[in-house]
Amino acid sequence: MRFDIYLLYLLLRLFGKLPLRTLHGVGAAIGRFLRWSRSRTVHNTSVNLRIVRPQLDDAAHAVLLREVMEDSGRSATEIARIWGNDAERALDLVREVRGEALFDAALAGGKGVIIAAPHLGCWELLNYWLCRKTPMAILYRPPRIAAVEGLLRKVRGALAPEQVRAEGAGVRTLYKRLAAGGTVGILPDQKPRAGEGEVAPFFGQDALTMVLLPRLAARTGATVLFAFAERLPRGEGYRIHLLPAPEGLDDADLAVACRALNRGVEQCVELAFTQYQWHYKRYSADTWRSPYD
Fold first, then answer.
1. How does strand 94-98 pair with strand 162-165?
2. Which helix (H) or strand (E) is 204 found in, with range?
């Protein structure tokens, strides 16, 4: 492991000894500070909130923006508690699981399970919980800094999912795993590359939407479940949610399927609205004017 990456690992271990409530408090303070910055993150977040909550006046929008930025800060600092400890110790922070019976039934069905995990709450803790239940492969894009991959392998330890690159060979691996009755995880709100998606409404506004997940579901007959780890107040821990996919997600008509996919993400987001990664430029595409300009 590169020296600077190893130093980061040691810092994670050090700060990981702090109580979750302390880490969340520091994160919220950072978020409030950044709220007044002129960063692109705050700008993009504000634009997205205007799109998905158009009914809010300026005062209500400002309050929501502050709350979202606070949760963005918490998502950054809590990673020390998740990555800076043994995975099993991190799982001690799970206080409740809603929908576990759905997951158990899907695993027992033997037709494969697709976990659609949006950019919501603490997805690293969700990975741990899922991988303790069953081996899992996740589709991912390699980090820009290659050395970070070594850090990810080390901190995730025995509960690390198999990482499958988002390319041809990796997609074939997902099909094989599902055909064998296995479990795969995909970020359903990841913006696809140009020419690889379908336009579908997301909170009432057109957004380029991935087609891979609906195609996997349609071709394999796998059960699709949406999942996320909700951050509880006052650093009390986390609540795991597993929800059934909306009807139509495996439809052969990709327009129908992608609308259902986005509805599934919306249903998750509405359960923990401020914990969504609202700075993500979901409403941009090469073929239309970006609202973030």
1. unpaired
2. none
